[in-house]
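Supplementary Methods. Inverse-folding protocol.

Structures were first reduced to a discrete structure-token string of length 379. This string, shown here, constituted the complete conditioning input.
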């Protein structure tokens, strides 16, 4: 028997499949576009013999697609990927034309994270082609609105995670054969300041400036950034005032918080929600809380990471993990439930969300191999 008949992981074929996904542009806010992407992926998994469950989108978001292997018993492997991107329709004809320059392949959402989603699909297809099955049942879940914080799919992700033994997240890989084993938690808050409007010339003394109060609050809030403890705070949006000659009665600010562990999440959430006015005769209200809990590298995650490292060594390569990253993902939800979660399993590249978004062609083969062998061997 010639070994040429053995199915191989063909990076050219992997790339062709990724490009088909890229050509279906799917910005989070365009549910019709995202669902065109869902149609494509649903058909591909159906053809592999998986059972499909499609949950209609809510609140204007796209559908959640779940595909399950018909084989395997007990708690299995949950594979997470999102099908939405941050790039508006038409990006593919303008700043992010699909093209290859040396090892770099460009396209909207190619790195974050259509390459990763496709790699997971191809990995399973590779096993099926070889007549192999995974030891554990595998559930693939495709999320339509991850880029806006998974507002409608979060509960589904958490429910699914509780019924699984491991979670693999196909988010972008990190430079030089790195994956993600921890992420900071993400909090979002909105501060509203209410003052008192007045004529800025005739009745200045009667006014209470909401913008002045907000300015003082911002200095206090931004002062909580503490790089040593790993806490960062960013007032990213601010809105207030009605005219240059009016003492402003209202001002709102939106705040992003990142914290490395649950204790700090609780500490900071408590601090934000109890902020008091600094000036006289003004009201301050804060709403919000933690949006993604911290994802910490515990013993279960370390053990899963070691399995991945052993697989990578079969290729003569060394898999590493990145130091605690500030970017959140759906992996935060599953890891916080205590499900061993390995993230950043997608293609290596750079420029997530940017006009130079790209993957490295040379990473497709080892990353697909890693995913296929994890699916095959996890038990
Ligand atoms: Zn992503």
């Amino acid at each position: 028997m010639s070994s040429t008949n053995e199915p191989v992981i063909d990076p050219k074929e992997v790339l062709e499949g990724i490009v088909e996904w890229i050509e279906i542009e799917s910005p989070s806010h365009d549910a019709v576009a995202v669902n065109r992407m869902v149609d494509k992926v649903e058909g591909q998994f159906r053809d592999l013999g998986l059972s499909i469950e499609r949950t209609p989108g809510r609140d204007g978001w796209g559908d959640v697609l779940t595909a399950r292997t018909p084989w395997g018993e007990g708690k299995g492997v949950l594979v997470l990927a999102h099908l939405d991107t941050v790039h508006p329709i038409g990006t593919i004809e303008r700043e992010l034309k699909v093209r290859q320059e040396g090892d770099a392949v460009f396209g909207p959402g190619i790195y974050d994270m259509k390459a990763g989603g496709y790699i997971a699909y191809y990995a399973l297809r590779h096993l099926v082609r070889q007549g192999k099955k995974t030891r554990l049942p595998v559930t693939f879940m495709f999320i339509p609105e991850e880029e806006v914080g998974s507002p409608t799919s979060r509960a589904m992700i958490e429910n699914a995670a509780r019924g699984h033994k491991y979670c693999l997240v196909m988010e972008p890989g990190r430079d030089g054969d790195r994956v993600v084993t921890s992420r900071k938690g993400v909090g979002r808050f909105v501060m509203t300041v209410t003052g008192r409007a007045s004529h800025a010339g005739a009745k200045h003394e009667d006014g209470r400036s909401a913008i002045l109060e907000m300015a003082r609050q911002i200095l206090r809030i931004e002062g909580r950034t503490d790089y040593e403890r790993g806490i960062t705070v960013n007032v990213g949006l601010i809105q207030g005032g009605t005219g240059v000659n009016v003492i402003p009665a209202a001002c709102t600010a939106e705040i992003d918080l990142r914290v490395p562990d649950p204790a700090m999440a609780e500490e900071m959430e408590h601090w934000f929600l109890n902020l008091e006015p600094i000036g006289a005769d003004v009201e301050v209200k804060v709403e919000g809380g933690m949006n993604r809990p911290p994802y910490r590298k515990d013993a279960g995650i370390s053990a899963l990471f070691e399995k991945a490292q052993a697989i990578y060594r079969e290729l003569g390569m060394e898999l590493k993990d990145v130091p605690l990253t500030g970017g959140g993902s759906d992996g935060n939800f599953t890891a916080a439930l205590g499900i061993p979660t390995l993230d950043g399993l997608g293609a290596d590249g750079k420029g997530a969300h940017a006009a130079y978004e790209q993957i490295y062609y040379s990473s497709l083969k080892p990353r697909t191999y890693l995913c296929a062998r994890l699916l095959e061997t996890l038990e």
